[in-house]
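Input/output pair, single chain:
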Amino acid sequence: MGSMNEGAGMAAMQPLPEEKSSPASAAVCTLRNWLGDLSLNIPHYQRPYKWGLAQVQQLLRDIELQAQTTAQDQGASSYRMGTVVVHVEQAEDREAQPQRVLHHIVDGQQRTVTLLLVLHALRAEAKLVPEGQRPSWQQELLTLKLFEPQFPSPLSHQLVQANYQAVARHIRQAQWGQMQASFLLERCEVVRVQLHSLTEAFQFFDAQNGRGKALCVHDLLKAFHLRALRPAELALQGQAVQAWEKCSQDDLERLFARFLFQTRQRSRGRDAEFFGKRHVGVFKGISLESHAAAPMSRTWRMLDDAVHLLESHTGTRGRVWPCQLDAPVVNGLRFFDWVQHYWGMGFHLKQEKDQLPPWAQKLQQPLAGEAHEILLTLGRYAGRERKGDSHVRAVFDALLMYYLDKFGEQGLSQAVELAFVWAYARLLNRRVMVGSMDKFVNESGVNPFAVLRDAVTSQDFLGMALPAAFYGNSYQGGEQSRPKGLATLEGWMRKLGYWQQITQQDAQKQGAGESA
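Output:
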């Protein structure tokens, strides 16, 4: 195995198209040189190490398969393991002579850490062999110098430990030896892209997310808005990222898909049941850079200056920005403040049976009796876990979040009743399938999200006229033809005065009209 010289085994550096002020380079390098770069660092703005057992096992199987193929075909060259992106930064250490350089891993952390675990597991096996009996490949393995990543996230620590145990078990059971170790260090390669501009590094990152654990939409948004930080905001990026990473990733995904995206889309009359990477633009907005000359940008920049001054005097950093669900997103730091605000409302948290939803438990004023009981009913009626019922509940919750965000607790009890009547009338009328709620919102005759968008006072929304609910044609066969739990919902419609008794003949006419 070659020397530990970082340049050994590297292809000639190939310059990338770039601006002169931001030199960039790309090179193919072996894992020996990549993992042996002692300047590598996992920056604080990186998401936690998150690979699970499935990804680790797949990587190990890939290595075994490729190593076997290479052993059988001496002409085989290398196994390319994708691209890694590095941001080069001069460390601020005045005593360091010469000044230390850090290579921040912007993309490729998951693969890099896992491969590092594999090498450490191989070294641990080598240490079990008495020193005088170790073959040369094991002796050399133990002399390797490998970079030592630091993980600020407790989640990363847990997964690193768990995955290391899984890797150690695998190589012991599969009896990995010289063939796998030599293949790993000498034949496995990465394309190392090295950039001196953090902005360019994040731009490159946006295009490099298809390998390994797929990034969620909110991961891409995090990268975009970190890249959009203005110079004055850079000192606060650690605080913003730390707050973000404290949020459960599953709950973040739920917050974006079920609430933030749905509200912004439905208030504009757009479909909202399918949230994917093509919708990233929904959460990209206004730049506050001084060169942004549009009048709207200048208005928001003035607001940002005023809020920053207030935050400085009151020590309320991140808690003053006036958030509004349907307002333009402000790129950079204010986006993180915006997300934290809606995270704090608690709508994304699951309602426990026989308890109010977590968001309702935070209210300063108790809800009126009927609104209180409606929310309890929605958390315990038979059938609430069905997919169709879950789709309806998502729309109901999003509408209430939108109302509370705009008008606070004023008239909230009445808003709960209206949101229930409008959303659950669809469930009582006929079965809800995937995409049904998009169609319902567009064709129901009234879109309360659009009403709320244009409302200036709470009464503009609370005075909204809603049609009565009724059982559609497929439910006209009596109670036996209806899914469990609908009778409970029907009881509430009757109590609120929104139930219409309809004959089977009328239901058939209604169905024919909808199909026309």
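The chain has 21 helices and six strands. Residues 387-407 form the longest helix (21 residues).
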